[in-house]
Specification:
The structure holds 3 protein chains of 3 kinds.
Chain A lengths: L1 H6 L3 E6 L4 E5 L9 E4 H15 L3 E5 L15 H5 L4 E3 L4 H13 L3 E5 L10 H8 L2 H5 L6 E6 L14 H5 L5 E3 L4 H13 L4 E6 L7 E4 L12 E4 L4 E5 L3 H13 L5 E5 L2 E3 L3 H11 L2 E8 L4 H12 L9 E5 L8 H7 L3 H13 L1
Parallel strand pairs in A: 4-5, 4-6, 6-7, 7-9, 8-9, 12-13, 12-15, 15-16
Antiparallel strand pairs in A: 1-2, 3-10, 8-14, 11-13
Helix pairs in contact in A: 2-8, 4-5, 9-13
Chain B lengths: L7 H7 L9 H25 L16 H8 L7 E3 L5 H7 L3 H8 L33 H14 L6 E6 L6 H12 L4 E7 L2 E2 L2 E2 H4 L7 H6 L3 E5 L3 H16 L5 E6 L17 H8 L3 H12 L4 H24 L18
Parallel strand pairs in B: 1-2, 2-3, 3-7, 6-7
Antiparallel strand pairs in B: 4-5
Helix pairs in contact in B: 2-3, 2-4, 2-12, 2-13, 3-4, 3-10, 5-13, 6-7
Chain C lengths: L3 E4 L9 E7 L6 E2 L4 E6 L4 E5 L4 E6 L6 E3 L3 E6 L68 H9 L20 H9 L46 H16 L2 E9 L1 H16 L7 H14 L5 E4 L2 E4 L5 E3 L1 E3 L2 E3 L2 E2 L7 H16 L13 E4 L19 E5 L3 E7 L2 E15 L5 H16 L4
Parallel strand pairs in C: 12-16, 16-17
Antiparallel strand pairs in C: 1-8, 2-4, 2-7, 3-6, 4-5, 6-8, 9-19, 10-11, 12-15, 13-14, 17-19, 18-19
Helix pairs in contact in C: 1-2, 5-6, 5-7
The chains are: A alpha/beta, B alpha/beta, C alpha+beta.
């Protein structure tokens, strides 16, 4: 399934009215019965299917049961699976993750929801000191998934818009994934649930309902640690993840009119990440833009820049450029947030400069 | 805390005296494990560490042996224990070998964590022992989750979770106890209140008088026992374990005791008034229990001597083997960060 | 029985030394394993230290009151028969071991310094680049490139100085495109045929000059705004400096009385307009120039190495100033057109230039260029030759002046024409004769 996926191109379906956002569809031939599924629905389906298949899988978190989840990711699950598999907890992120760890040590496969990924900081200790180090210290796997909606663009302000991925990318023993399409959202949540190690799964809230795809109904998994080339190109590689993938694609469309051909690589996994695909792309185009919504210092772009400079120096025909949010908390007021988030025009301008270098 | 503030009568009133006794064999096992714990920790702290054979930090539970031993002695093999750093008795009772423990302390490849972590940070799913982390009270939510999994699967297993007075100040302690109570999980929370957290005395650690007072706030029963009376501990723990096993939810047991050493082997506890050490030395749990057993005719003085000799021999043998065990290879540093197909 | 070393233990994670306060045994004493052997004092704690082995205290290496680092051997337990060991030093003040200094790394290999294939230069020897932007070290003779380009050059055995001055990247950097097309063309000094942006009028004839000296690093204390050049501007910039380097520019000035052509224009204007052609003064100058070019074909030529290439057709380019830059559409075969035809053609290309509708054909194969600095009031211009031509004529503003005719003062519309010419092939005398012919044509226009 995954191999075939790589060759398919994105095709426009239709302009989603009043959202200013294109919906993307895959090029899958309609050999199976398929449905147009949103990104959030894809996550829900992924969890649901795994819970049906494996009785060890359960969900715990705030408002996941009777309310169906703040973003309705677990809608309908309480009725289907019962209160011992969709567990409404007190407001205790640390205990939510701690309890997940305990249950995982006893052989279960818990999915701990952080209502907003921002709140994961309350469980930082349990994740980084308990879960991440168990296998290393005493050979015991902790197969938990900690998932939550991250990212901005929704007027959420500093505590509902963060991109906390790097705290966890910096912790050996964890895995960190950030899907950008509905297909990947479903494939990666399944991979995360099935993974024997703790996986931190950041779903981008801006994409929840804006991104739709036809998904195959059979079981499929997206492997953790593999990137995907969303748009092959020859002039500049744009390495990115999350909602920024769409900004990069929009920029590519604009730039192709000027004869500048971007290659857009969707990282999908930050830890482990797909070094092979990244270096291959850089060696092909010889110019790189590193793009993420996360802030600049300590962001993933710095890590990639070091790797590219270290391992592909002789393939560079221009300096490595970064496009990131500035080093501030995420502001609330719309003009401030617009300033904060990397824009399509930023990508276009940097690409033009880099192209002319 | 001044010795003049400790009124033995008040202490006696607070604690719950034992309502029954275990069978004789259990009594002997209790003595064996307490003495084994004492001797093992003595060798570790006073000998091996000072001979440079153990590096890093060493923490012992001298004077507090009754707590782990009394509560763990009657557990089932499929029950789970989440110990803290002064619960050596728990490891011994659950079946971890002396050699493995000593190799762990001496950072050898044959230790419980293969050199990846030191001293009491050990455990083994085979023995249903969950290693704790230095962020004390992190094990409380984990224990709650363990109990939750028993409930979800309809198993009548029980989890024991140990922590000290200091750990109860951490947020994770409160989140974990609260969650355990909300879900009524089969966990027994056991507090070793030895009245000092490093150099922080109790009155600087909490505004309540007893840790067990907090139980009411979280809707679970709380009990105070004399932590230096192994039978009192045994009794309270056995009742709490039965409660949990029968689905009645968690209990908080506070064991009042005293830390007879510094916080660690390199701390001389100069901040503790000498009178307190004297006061609690008279209440040493092992001495107390030996007196009790002799009075009851369950063991004689020479029986106790023989027991000590046996313990010394077991530990000597284990040290000899563990001392010769290899250190891990340097490249082992890179192993086991993630699951690897083998 | 082997000897056992007794070490100073580490009593606490931050402890790095300890002091022996008391030996409980002396040399020669028997000792049991775990029996107290000595006492120490550290920052954190005073401790009694037990012996690690049984035997005889063979050597005491550290005295009471001495402070040593942890893991120092302080005593040896033996069976009483071995020779004494050396006493260790007192703990030095500096306790950290210094890492051995890393050996200096080899300087990176540079491409060979000899220049291949190009003509020797008379100009100043170019210095290596002091980079201010881009951060690349200057390659041989100051050619800026990139790691990729240097690697490709190395792989193909290309000396980057062969491409010096021909880079199409920012500040003349040699780009991947440059090196690859250089390699494709067999590594000659030819300039790669550029994707023609609209403004480029020159045919791809290689200029004989070698690397120009790179500009010094720009330092300016004040706010700046950096704007990358458009393709057109880049092309113009490159062409201008290249032209100056190529031709031996001299400019000569002729003052011409325009009264007759002004009159002729008046007479013919209405008639031309009926044919839909607006008549300005420019066609007169173009026709006059064309006629003069027929008489002085050297001015209608090009230079190719040491060959003069005389061109048969007379194709005159008319410089048009646009918002985005300068463009020179060419009126072909001016000598075969009459005034109306010339006027028509001029208007047509001018129109299309302003509306960006010129075709590549419109801007190539010019043999002579006319530019109009007088458009904005300049009296005189010193235009730059439009390569690969050898002359360019600039028209100043037409202004009524008081002139002397037959020893009397008259008011006449006067223009100053300037001719910049390439002294490699056109000597001053020839240029002046050419201009005299132009003047004669204009001042004797039939009215």
């Amino acid at each position: 399934m995954e191999a075939r996926r790589k060759q398919s191109q994105f095709r426009l379906l239709h302009w989603y009215p009043n959202s200013g956002f294109w919906l993307l569809a895959s090029g899958f031939p309609p050999t199976q019965h398929m449905a147009l599924t949103t990104y959030v629905e894809a996550i829900r389906q992924g969890i649901w299917e795994e819970m049906e298949k494996d009785e060890r899988v359960f969900v715990l978190g705030e408002d996941v049961g009777i309310y169906g989840g703040a973003f309705k990711v677990t809608a309908g699950m309480l009725e289907k699976f019962g209160e011992w598999r969709i567990i409404d907890t007190p407001i205790s992120e640390s205990a939510i993750v701690g309890a997940a760890i305990g249950a995982a040590l006893m052989g279960m496969r818990p999915i701990a929801e952080m209502q907003f990924a921002d709140f994961i900081s309350c469980a930082f200790d349990q994740i980084t000191n308990f879960a991440a180090k168990c296998r290393y210290r005493w050979g015991a796997g902790v197969p938990i998934v900690v998932r939550g909606p991250s990212g901005g663009g929704v007027h959420g302000g500093p505590f509902h818009s963060q991109n906390p991925e790097m705290y966890f990318v910096h912790t050996p023993g964890l895995k960190v994934v950030c899907p950008s399409t509905a297909y990947d959202a479903k494939g990666l949540i399944k991979a995360a649930i099935r993974d024997p190690d703790p996986v931190i799964y950041f779903e981008h809230k801006f994409l929840y309902r804006r991104v739709k795809e036809e998904l195959p109904t059979d079981d499929f998994v997206v492997p953790i640690g593999k990137a995907s080339i969303r748009r092959p190109g020859t002039d500049i590689s744009v390495l990115t993840y999350g909602a920024m993938v769409y900004n990069a694609l929009d920029a590519a469309k604009e730039l192709e009119r000027e004869g500048i051909d971007l290659e857009v690589v969707d990282l999908r996994s930050l830890l482990p990440f797909d070094k092979e695909t990244i270096l291959e792309s850089v060696k092909k185009t010889n110019k790189v833009i590193l793009l993420h919504e996360d802030t600049r210092i300590g962001g993933f772009a710095g890590e990639l820049a070091a790797i590219i400079s270290d391992e592909a120096f002789e393939y560079l025909d221009g300096p490595i450029r970064r496009i990131t949010a500035p080093d501030t908390p995420v502001p609330y007021s719309p003009p401030l947030e617009e300033f904060f988030l990397p824009k399509v025009s930023d990508i276009v301008n940097v690409a033009r400069e880099l192209y002319a270098y | 805390m001044n010795v003049k503030d400790i009124n033995p009568e008040i202490l006696a009133r607070q604690v719950v005296p034992p309502t029954r006794l275990p069978p004789d064999q259990t009594l002997l096992d209790l003595l064996y494990y307490m003495k084994l714990t004492r001797e093992l920790e003595f060798r570790i702290e006073r000998k091996l560490y000072r001979q440079g054979k153990i590096v890093g930090g060493v923490y012992v539970g001298r004077g507090q042996e009754a707590i782990a031993v009394g509560s763990c002695i009657n557990l089932r093999a499929d029950d789970v224990v989440c110990p803290s750093h002064r619960d050596m008795g728990a490891f011994l009772i659950r079946g971890m070998s002396l050699r493995t423990i000593l190799a762990q302390y001496m950072a050898r490849k044959t230790g419980a964590t293969r050199g990846k972590d030191g001293n009491m940070h050990m455990g083994d799913l085979k023995h249903n022992l969950i290693p704790f982390v230095s962020m004390l009270a992190d094990n409380v939510p984990v224990a709650a989750g363990i109990g939750l999994s028993f409930k979800m699967r309809g198993q009548d297993r029980v989890a024991l979770c140990f922590f000290g007075d200091g750990a109860t100040s951490r947020g994770d302690w409160h989140e974990g106890v609260n969650m355990a109570s909300v879900f009524k999980v089969p966990v027994v929370f056991i507090c070793n209140n030895n009245q000092y957290a490093y150099s922080t005395p109790l009155e600087r650690q909490m505004a309540v008088e007893n840790v067990a007072d907090r139980a009411e706030a979280y809707g679970l029963p709380g009990e105070i026992v004399d932590g230096n009376d192994v039978l009192a501990v045994w009794d309270a723990a056995t009742r709490a374990i039965e409660r949990a096993r029968s689905g009645q939810g968690p209990t908080l047991i506070e064991c009042k005791t005293f830390r007879m050493t510094g916080h660690s082997a390199h701390d001389d506890a100069g901040y503790v008034p000498a009178e307190l050490f004297e006061f609690w030395e008279e209440r040493d749990p092992i001495n107390k229990f030996e007196r009790f057993l002799k009075e009851r005719g369950i063991i004689t003085a020479s029986g106790i001597e023989d027991l000590q000799k046996r313990i010394n021999r077991e530990i000597d043998e284990a040290i000899q083997i563990a001392e010769k065990d290899p250190f891990p290879d340097p490249e082992d540093c890179l192993k086991d960060v993630y699951y690897e197909e083998s | 029985m082997a000897d056992t070393k007794v070490i100073m233990p580490q009593m606490g994670e931050s402890i790095f030394e300890g002091t022996i306060t008391k030996w409980l045994k002396k040399k020669g004493d028997k000792i049991q394993r775990d029996e107290p052997l000595f006492e120490i004092s550290t920052d954190k704690i005073d401790s009694e230290i037990p012996s690690p082995a049984s035997g005889v205290v063979q050597d005491i290496l550290v005295k009471e009151g001495q402070t040593v680092q942890i893991n120092t051997v302080v005593a040896v337990i033996g069976d009483g028969t071995s020779t004494p060991a050396e006493a260790p030093k007192e703990a030095p003040k500096e306790t950290r071991k210094e890492a051995p200094k890393a050996s200096p790394t080899e300087p990176p290999k540079e491409a060979p310094k000899e220049v291949k294939g190009t003509a020797p230069i008379d100009g100043p020897v170019p210095e290596t680049d002091e980079e201010e932007e881009g951060g690349e070290e200057g390659g041989p003779e100051g050619t800026r490139s990139s790691p990729l380009v240097r690697r490709i050059a190395k792989e193909h055995g290309v000396d980057l100085s062969a491409l010096a001055g021909k880079g199409t990247g920012i500040n003349g950097r040699i780009t991947k495109r440059d090196i690859l097309s250089y390699v494709e063309q067999g590594g000659t000094a030819e300039k790669p045929a550029a994707k023609a942006p609209a403004a480029r009028p020159a045919a791809p004839v290689p200029p004989p000059a070698a690397a120009p000296p790179p500009p010094p690093a720009m330092k300016f204390a004040g706010e700046v705004e950096r704007v990358p050049m458009t393709q057109m501007r880049k092309s113009i910039a490159e062409h201008m400096v290249m032209s100056r380097r190529t031709s031996a520019h001299v400019t000569t000035f002729f003052e011409v009385d325009c009264s007759r052509i002004m009159k002729a224009r008046e007479n013919s204007r209405a008639e031309f307009e009926r044919s839909g052609v607006k008549l300005t003064v420019t066609p007169f100058f173009v026709q006059a120039a064309a006629n003069a070019l027929k008489k002085f074909p050297i001015v209608n030529s090009s230079v190719d190495g040491d060959t003069i290439v005389y061109k048969r057709p007379v194709n005159i380019g008319i410089a048009v100033s646009l918002e985005t830059g300068l463009i020179v559409p060419v009126v072909k075969n001016v000598d075969q057109k009459n005034l109306l035809g010339i006027a028509n053609a001029i208007n047509d290309v001018g129109e299309r230039a302003r509306n960006k509708k010129l075709t590549p054909d419109d801007v190539k194969d010019g043999t002579f260029t006319i530019t109009n600095p007088g458009q904005y009031g300049a009296l005189i211009g010193t235009p730059i030759i439009n390569q690969p031509q050898v002359a360019i004529m600039g028209m100043g503003a037409i202004k009524k002046r008081a002139v002397v005719i037959d020893d009397a003062i008259a008011i006449r519309p006067m223009i100053i024409l300037s001719l910049s010419f390439d002294h490699r092939v056109i000597d001053g005398a020839v240029a002046d004769q050419f201009m005299a012919e132009v003047q004669k044509q204009l001042e004797n226009w039939p009215v």
